[in-house]
Sequence to fold (130 residues):
Amino acid sequence: MATLVGVVRVPLEHLDFSHPQQIDFKVLKRLTRMVKRLRAAGLTEIQIPSAVDQGTVEQILAQLGFSAEQLRGTLRNGQQDTPVLTGIRLCCPYGQHTTATTARNKGTSLVIHLFSVERRSQISTLGYIS
Fold:
């Protein structure tokens, strides 16, 4: 069972993908149109999940100087209050095309939802609906 533990922003180069794939430019073009429509509606934040084990959660807490409760509090905070996490690579089960689209669309930011899992092997089975 995966539990949502918090939300962070990270530099795109700190993301690893469980199932890396070649970027399909047709998908990228379709997602770019979607992002432009979302931005026109005032939405500038794209969300993807990351699965982290307890050791990584502890590293994140130490890096941010947060308690577990403060990290959970990021779930309720507004977009400007989302902490920026650097120096820790996060594993994402999917979202590679979304990340590439975000990189191409200035003014759109990527927010990572952190899900705690018991074992690293659960990372690839994480299901997520935003």
Observations:
- The beta strands are 3-8, 15-17, 45-52, 90-92, 109-116.
